[in-house]
Predict the structure.
Amino acid sequence: MITAEWIYWLAGALFLSTGIEIALDRSHPKRWTNAMFWILLGLSFFYGSFLTALPHWPLGIAVIAMALIAGCGLTCAGTVTTTTDPEREESARRKGNLLFVPALTIPAITVAFAVGISRINFAGRPLLAAGQETLVGLGVAVIVALIVGIVLLRPQQPFVALREGRRLLESVGWAVLLPQMLAVLGGLFTQAGVGTDVGVLAAHAVSEHSRILAVVAYALGMALFTIVMGNAFAAFRS
Amino acid sequence: MLPLFGVAVVVAGFSLRRNPLLVVTVAGVVSSLLAGISPVHILDAFASGFASSRSVSLAFIVLPVVGLAERFGLQQRAKTLIERAAGLTAGRLLLVYLFVRQTAAALGLTSIGGVPQMVRPVIYPMAEGAVRRAHGRELPVRVTDHIKAHAAAADTVGAFFGEDVFVAVGAVLLITAYVDATYHLKLDAVQIAFWAIPTAIAAFLIHGFRLLRLDGTISAMLASEPDDAAGGA
């Protein structure tokens, strides 16, 4: 059975290579703290696969360290050499609609996995682990799309894709960690009983006899919490 | 009631515009300490929360592919294509995208679209190209930022309000499992998905209306900024 763990390692490897490239980039304005952020993120993706066998606290420290590095303004994007706008205009004229093929390969293959390959059984068990079909599909799709892109666009060095990946990752910056941190916060709040407390408060404020008022209070409360802290509160994640 | 102080930390931190990662970390630690959870357990919770939410960061693995295509002019090509399609304004284009995204998500195909793999490389450049063609001038950063925000919002609204219509999506299964366990009920996931349809239609109508107004908003924004102020930014 194929599970999604290796795709986390693929993502971890991408973050690690970004960190190593930054560490080697002498021109980077915040070279070491940035390198540290991305290397920690990469290692955490690997470490997370072995939490059942390893102690949890080192990963906890790594996560807080990443949040502190970013939170204290110690990260920023470096300058990555890429093509100039005129070069891109010229290349866009030559390559035409071929340029869309790598990007469109990704949803095509992911969907094929989600609706087709997920039904295949191998030796009496499903080939893809339940609930992970889309993730496995995404991993395969990215690798195939990368090969398709290199074959169609013929960059002078294939590894240029990794550098372009670093360029985009650095432009997203510390925000890559935010969705996960919101999920972590959701878990911490659930553990601390914040949801229960809010429920008790709401029960005081709204009469239980009026269902419509209860629904309105619930919807407004949910909207308010989602505005404040994203989807994390609503998702009750643990 | 003490752990509620963590929510106050989030509100205060975000309104003072502190770094969100810092705010979220401090809020989580404060709430947990006030609830009497030991520091080691807090670290454990950070670890297990991070490990179990890794899937939300997986979208970033498409970036090398997108970056490679961008290097060879993907955004420029998307702009050229849209400049040829007369009558397709930014608002109408995003409306079509919203429809496709929401319908696909309702059929369980959430992997069609997404901000890193579809909006940034294809949809946003097309929307910007449409505005550029309609007005025939360079666009100030305020306007391009507005187009970017709307391109991303169309994707998010479509995915968010579409996916709950599909039965086998995480959110529907989560609702069913949570309510069944907490209130000892036996909810039917198909019913949950069915009753997500009115919300989905309302979301499409409301957001679609906003998108149809987008072209007017952009024209007004451009009219208030003289042409020579553009380009320099």
Summary: Chain A touches chain B through 102 residues (CB under 8 Å). The CA atoms of residues 62 and 164 of chain A lie 26 Å apart.
